[in-house]
């Protein structure tokens, strides 16, 4: 369905009818055509509707638009507002055609976008950094604590009769106090996680990145170390790097085999940074103590996946940014990026290609 902004509110207009209507009027008739690939939170849709700048078609569902449908719907659009489940590659860009000026993703991660293809076509890209940093950092801390202090196991035991008397070593876990926390990829989220963990009495923060990030690291007095040192010295290792060809599968046997047997591994970045077979091996053999994952490969992870069988593995369904405030802010920023890009103005958050 096509939606056109109007002073009287929403009006549903079929595209051919819309085109006929407007073809008969003189300029400035052309509202930019936009395709929105998902039912995004209301703030973003409101901004698009009230802009008076675009007419948009929405895949009005909580589930991803089927690929075939996406390829059909993008034809001729000037703007595309997408989420991370849509792979925006040469096929989609070809299907859209030369009118496409802006792709705005409601995510900070952009591994689903083919950047060289976008750059080649001069298409501008908007994304949503910063607005989700606090929510993701908060969830990462929650996941870390749930994993290290075995909260899911404990709740299960309490509910199912495993709770006998108070026992001295039962359900013991690992505490943050006096620990070394390692961060793989010290960006916005990595720093925000460290800031939240500091008051728990963490003794030392260490990190790896493509190069030292002196300014960010000084906020949390973090030391730049090699991957080997990160693996060997971390009591808690949080993965916060972007997914790139270099980071794909970077958390593998080589990394896990160097980690402490008491170490807790946390990933809230992207599933493919982890080799899941190697992680399963590390967890089931006692090479590391536990893992908490907000992201997996694939997503959703099938319920019969071996990782779900492990008590020392806590798996969440990719909810790190899922607070009402943050998801609305992401959708508003994605809409504002799109509108600014279509006007040829600086976007609030543009990805430099
Ligand atoms: N689970 C979720 O719902 C969720 C939500 C938001 C973001 N994320 C993920 O978190 C990532 C980080 O977000 P951010 O806002 O902190 O981004 P950011 O760009 O500020 O930080 C990413 C960091 O990763 C580093 N990095 C890149 N390649 C690396 C490598 N080879 N080794 C080590 N470090 C490397 C970058 O230099 C940068 O410092 C996003 O790319 C996204 O994939 C996940």
UniProtKB/TrEMBL annotation:
<keyword id="KW-0560">Oxidoreductase</keyword>
<dbReference type="GO" id="GO:0008465">
    <property type="term" value="F:hydroxypyruvate reductase (NADH) activity"/>
</dbReference>
<dbReference type="InterPro" id="IPR006139">
    <property type="entry name" value="D-isomer_2_OHA_DH_cat_dom"/>
</dbReference>
<dbReference type="InterPro" id="IPR050223">
    <property type="entry name" value="D-isomer_2-hydroxyacid_DH"/>
</dbReference>
<dbReference type="GO" id="GO:0030267">
    <property type="term" value="F:glyoxylate reductase (NADPH) activity"/>
</dbReference>
<comment type="similarity">
    <text>Belongs to the D-isomer specific 2-hydroxyacid dehydrogenase family.</text>
</comment>
<dbReference type="GO" id="GO:0005829">
    <property type="term" value="C:cytosol"/>
</dbReference>
<dbReference type="Pfam" id="PF02826">
    <property type="entry name" value="2-Hacid_dh_C"/>
</dbReference>
<dbReference type="InterPro" id="IPR029752">
    <property type="entry name" value="D-isomer_DH_CS1"/>
</dbReference>
<feature type="domain" description="D-isomer specific 2-hydroxyacid dehydrogenase NAD-binding">
    <location>
        <begin position="141"/>
        <end position="320"/>
    </location>
</feature>
<dbReference type="GO" id="GO:0051287">
    <property type="term" value="F:NAD binding"/>
</dbReference>
<protein>
    <recommendedName>
        <fullName>Glyoxylate reductase/hydroxypyruvate reductase</fullName>
    </recommendedName>
</protein>
<dbReference type="InterPro" id="IPR029753">
    <property type="entry name" value="D-isomer_DH_CS"/>
</dbReference>
<dbReference type="InterPro" id="IPR036291">
    <property type="entry name" value="NAD(P)-bd_dom_sf"/>
</dbReference>
<dbReference type="Pfam" id="PF00389">
    <property type="entry name" value="2-Hacid_dh"/>
</dbReference>
<dbReference type="InterPro" id="IPR006140">
    <property type="entry name" value="D-isomer_DH_NAD-bd"/>
</dbReference>
<feature type="domain" description="D-isomer specific 2-hydroxyacid dehydrogenase catalytic">
    <location>
        <begin position="34"/>
        <end position="350"/>
    </location>
</feature>
């Amino acid at each position: 369905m096509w939606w056109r902004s109007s002073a009287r509110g929403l009006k549903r207009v079929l595209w051919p009818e819309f085109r006929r209507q407007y073809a008969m009027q003189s300029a400035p008739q052309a509202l930019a055509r936009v395709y929105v690939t998902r039912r995004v939170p209301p703030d973003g849709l409101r901004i698009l509707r009230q802009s008076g700048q675009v007419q948009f078609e929405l895949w009005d569902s909580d589930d991803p638009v089927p690929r075939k449908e996406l390829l059909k719907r993008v034809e001729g659009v000037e703007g595309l507002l997408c989420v991370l489940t849509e792979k925006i590659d040469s096929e989609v860009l070809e299907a859209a055609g030369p009118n496409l000026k802006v792709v705005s993703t409601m995510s900070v991660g952009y591994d689903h976008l083919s950047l060289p293809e976008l750059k080649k076509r001069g298409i501008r890209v908007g994304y949503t950094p910063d607005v989700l940093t606090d929510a993701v950092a908060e969830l990462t801390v929650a996941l870390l604590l749930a994993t290290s202090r075995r909260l899911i196991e404990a709740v299960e035991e309490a509910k199912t009769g495993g709770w006998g008397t108070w026992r001295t070593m039962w359900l013991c876990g690992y505490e943050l106090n006096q620990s070394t926390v390692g961060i793989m990829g010290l960006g916005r989220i990595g720093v925000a996680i460290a800031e939240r963990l500091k008051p728990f009495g963490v003794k030392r923060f260490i990190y790896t990145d493509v190069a030292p990030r002196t300014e960010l690291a000084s906020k949390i007095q973090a030391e730049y170390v090699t991957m080997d040192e990160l693996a060997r010295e971390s009591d808690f290792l949080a993965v916060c790097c972007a997914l790139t060809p270099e980071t794909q599968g970077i958390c593998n046997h080589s990394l896990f085999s160097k980690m402490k047997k008491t170490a807790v591994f946390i990933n809230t970045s992207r599933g493919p940074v982890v080799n899941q077979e190697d992680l399963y091996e590390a967890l089931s053999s006692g090479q590391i103590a536990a893992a908490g994952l907000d992201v997996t490969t694939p997503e959703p992870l099938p319920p019969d996946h071996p990782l779900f069988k492990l008590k020392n593995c806590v798996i969440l369904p990719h909810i790190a940014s899922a607070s009402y405030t943050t998801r609305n802010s992401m959708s508003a920023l994605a809409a504002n990026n799109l509108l600014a890009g279509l006007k040829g103005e600086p976007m609030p958050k543009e990805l430099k290609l």
